[in-house]
Amino acid sequence: MKKATSWTYKISIIMCLMIASTKSYALSDQDLTQIQMLKETALSSNLAYEIDESLTTEVGARRVGTVNDKRAVDWATAKMKQLGFDKVWTEEVTHIKWIRGTVEAKIISPYPQNMVAIALGGSVGTPKDGIKADVVEFENFAALEAAAPNSLKGKIAFISFRMERKIDGSGYEPAVKSRGDGPSMAASKGAIALLIRSVGTDDNRVAHTGGLSYQDGIAKIPAAALSNPDADMLQRQVARGAAVKVFLKLTAERKDETPVITANVIGEITGSESPDDYVVIGAHLDSWDVGTGAVDDGIGVAVTLAAAHHIANLKERPKRSLRVILFAAEEVGLVGAKQYVMDNKDHMDRHIIGAEWDFGTGLIYEMEPGVGPSALNTIRELAELLAPLGVSLNPKNTAKGDSDMSALGNAGMPAVNFSPDGLQYFDYHHTENDTLDKVDPEALKQNTAVFTIFSYFATQSDVDFRK
Amino acid sequence: MKKATSWTYKISIIMCLMIASTKSYALSDQDLTQIQMLKETALSSNLAYEIDESLTTEVGARRVGTVNDKRAVDWATAKMKQLGFDKVWTEEVTHIKWIRGTVEAKIISPYPQNMVAIALGGSVGTPKDGIKADVVEFENFAALEAAAPNSLKGKIAFISFRMERKIDGSGYEPAVKSRGDGPSMAASKGAIALLIRSVGTDDNRVAHTGGLSYQDGIAKIPAAALSNPDADMLQRQVARGAAVKVFLKLTAERKDETPVITANVIGEITGSESPDDYVVIGAHLDSWDVGTGAVDDGIGVAVTLAAAHHIANLKERPKRSLRVILFAAEEVGLVGAKQYVMDNKDHMDRHIIGAEWDFGTGLIYEMEPGVGPSALNTIRELAELLAPLGVSLNPKNTAKGDSDMSALGNAGMPAVNFSPDGLQYFDYHHTENDTLDKVDPEALKQNTAVFTIFSYFATQSDVDFRK
A186, A175, A209, A210: which is closest to A137 by C-alpha? Predict the structure, then answer.
């Protein structure tokens, strides 16, 4: 990183001079100098790592509706005040209660073996003595979908599809369909439970949780994910040809009638000229209840707070306001983000542009905008500022905002999506292994530099990114 | 591997010719040709992997005294018969009963966090409601040893020493002292329980078990290992300065008066000229009760059985007998190996030389003998045969036999120790992660080739390795 920094510094100076030589750009010479200084600050500061260390150590896992979720809201509120935000407030978010309970999964025959499994988020439990049934394996969701009606009566469906490791995380989408839509699809064929291979790229005996989505009008069946080595084991036993009987017991409980209350936590650096125009950067504050959420989305929380702090530390406020939104209840379906859009619908058009950070742990290598055609030139200027950090411009211009920010993007807000090296991300995602040791302090510095530059650039310019 | 094979093949032929040009060598030209053919067979056969796949899938974890331990003995007996051994028998081994029970470990204050922990093998349980006590951290065993008498009264001692990753596994010894001797040392200072950082090199939220050794006359206190990320967490909380209180509940039970019965499983390829002279290769059949023992010591079981099978498949039996000993109860203190020495004491002097394989998962890069001075020249011949496989000779000549084989080595048997690349080994050792996906089929081929060559060389020569 050191080498890159000194090299990028020289390039930046040259670029500064080049930009300074014309007048048709979004930012002034002074602003561009400011950006170089902000970049140096971000690249040399350990603040983002310290924030994540604080969150992971002092709060830890913070699933929506748990005691720790409330502790996280208090932590975030206090942290924002400490970091120099001008305004800090919360906006209430509600969700339904879910109790994870315990899980027991084992092969009974032909060869008894314990399996490491985890309930999918939102799953119902099994009957209290568990269930014993033969397993029917499907190589992917499409194969399950193609099964004849009633063909799984009394059986446990098992989708053995393995997620592929790809730098852009694009292996996730084809795999996660089994988790989201698998339970209702299996139930529609008569299955009494669903097991899936974890949606993850690791080979640890640690299973990956994540939300499921029951379809209305179809029986809700219990659903759990097996760790990759356990899915291998189950496949090996199935491949031997004899019937494979599994015992599964989940004590999970859905309390669809019991609301839980949490909150989006919002901090603002108030703009000096257009305080009612908002540039937003965000991440989600909630996590799953396994691991400590140091990566998902402790990294996003840390990077966005640190970026805002570096801007708050400047002598003068930028022209527009910068909002950091730490969204509630992302893991259960962008609930906090949708609530934010509802709560802020009257001034959604004053949300100038936004970016989410919810895909640590690597270096950002690409930026894709989703802006109006005439704002693309401005984005190119931003891209030139980010290029020395290793960030290239994807000119497709179809971004709608990542993760929570997609709710704001769908409500008309222009967005920028940043893509990092995601090769390791799905080793830890939604597992006990999402802990601080997986966070790379050097990558956080680069991430923070990118978000700091983006934030300053967008708050200090007066470009309308919708146009 | 392919590239290495064809290259090694050419070298081997040249070496063959060189060796064939004199008469003072241990093996005949025909034997050396046989060895080249055995090597090619081992390098192209998937048998060792198939054996390990069978053991891990059809038996799985097999801690001494469990139902699965008995299943493993049956599996091994049947497998040896199937693989063409001339004689297969078992020799009874007894040990005491231990029940793992469950573990619950969490930080209560200042910042509540769950911790992933595992009882050390042989640990007593806590009182049934668990214990709550402040933690006192020690950076290593020596620091605990230096603590004043009674200074830990009512406390939980915590040794945070982290094992180093080294190719030869030499990080293990300085770390494992905390596991073996830590409980009694902590108790001698008044502690009511011991927590150690797992003896392992990974960063998974998966804790490493392994045996402890209570000292006579000192109170037996419960002892557990934390996963590396949890040990990090506990250290971070301790580093903040306030008292850190931990809840620990183990339901483990020692049944010192209740014997459990298991067996060494022994297979023999009977020698054609000196059937009562034994070359022995070995591994241990038992495992811990976490993971499936695919690595520890499924790899050793697979490699030694496959090596013997390749020799059993030859048209003629070698001169001396080859014994494969699959030892019982290694994990609890070489119990099966010590029993073997007692059971075979009358003909221990007919045990010509032995080698154990209990340190998969990598390629073997070194061999160290422990033989009489005049046998060293013969070992050099063996080394020349192994060199093309990447195995160099460590001429120190101090080997006493690895693992179980050390019991036979201490009883006077010459030995050869093979050292593999052990960089990954302690990521999986004694954890749930010891599963088949950690086994490298290509490394198994090389390992099997080494053991096949060693076995044929020693059974077909008439050198006295004691001299």
Answer: A186
Calpha distance B448→B431 (Å, rounded): 25
B357 Cβ contact partners less than 8 Å away, ≥ 6 residues apart: B281, B282, B283, B297, B299, B300, B303, B304, B402, B418, B447, B451
Q: Which among B57, B229, B236 is the nearest to A237, CB-wise?
A: B57
CB B305, CB B268: distance < 8 Å: no
| B203 inside 8 A of chain A by CB | yes
Alpha-carbon distance of A352 to A414, in angstroms, equals 7
Rounded to whole angstroms, the Cα distance separating B209 from A381 reads 56
Q: What is the DSSP letter of A86?
A: S
CATH 3.40.630.10 range(s) for chain A read 2-98+258-460
Q: Is B200 on the interface with A (CB under 8 A)?
A: no
* Cβ–Cβ below 8 Å for A205 and B432: yes
Q: Measured between alpha carbons, how far is B31 from B24 in angstroms, rounded to an integer?
A: 14
Contacts of A233 in chain B (CB under 8 A): 56-57, 292, 435-436
Is B339 touching A (CB cutoff 8 A)?
no
Write out chain B's pLDDT in tens, 467 residues.
344 455 555 555 555 455 444 445 789 999 999 999 999 999 999 999 999 999 999 999 999 999 999 999 999 999 999 999 999 999 999 999 999 999 999 999 999 999 999 999 999 999 999 999 999 999 999 999 999 999 999 999 999 999 999 999 999 999 999 999 999 999 999 999 999 999 999 999 999 999 999 999 999 999 999 999 999 999 999 999 999 999 999 999 999 999 999 999 999 999 999 999 999 999 999 999 999 999 999 999 999 999 999 999 999 999 999 999 999 999 999 999 999 999 999 999 999 999 999 998 899 999 999 999 999 999 999 999 999 999 999 999 999 999 999 999 999 999 999 999 999 999 999 999 999 999 999 999 999 999 999 999 999 999 999 99
Q: How far is A233 from chain B, CA to nearest CA, in Å?
A: 7
Return d(Cα B155, Cα B134) in angstroms, integer: 5
Of the candidates B112, B237, B433, the beta carbon closest to that of A205 is on B433
B203, B236, B437 ranked by CB distance to A229: nearest: B437
Superfamily of A2-98+258-460 according to CATH: Zn peptidases (3.40.630.10)
Q: Which residue has the tokens 């990598």?
A: B362
Which residues on neighbouring strands pair with residue B135, listed in sequence order? B156
Binary contact (A436, B232; C-beta < 8 A): yes
Buried b (16+ CB within 10 A) or exposed e, A47-59: bbbebbbbbbbbb
Q: Where in chain B is the domain with CATH 3.40.630.10?
A: 2-97+258-460
Nearest to A231 by CA among A192, A191, A204, A211: A204
Assign domain B2-97+258-460 to its CATH architecture: 3-Layer(aba) Sandwich (3.40)
Interface check B117 vs A, CB under 8 A: no
Which candidate from B59, B236, B432 shows the least CB-CB separation from A116?
A: B432
How many cross-chain Cβ pairs, A to B, lie less than 8 Å apart?
86
Structural class in CATH, domain B101-251:
alpha beta
Chain A residues touching B292 at Cβ < 8 A: 113, 233
Whether A235 and chain B come into contact, CB under 8 Å, resolves to: no
- Chain B residues whose CB is inside 8 A of the A432 CB are 116, 205
Complete DSSP assignment for A399-442: ---STTHHHHHHTT--EEEEEE--TTHHHHTTSTT-SGGG--HH
Assigned architecture for domain A102-251: 3-Layer(bba) Sandwich (3.50)
Q: How far apart are CA A193 and CA A191, in angstroms?
A: 6
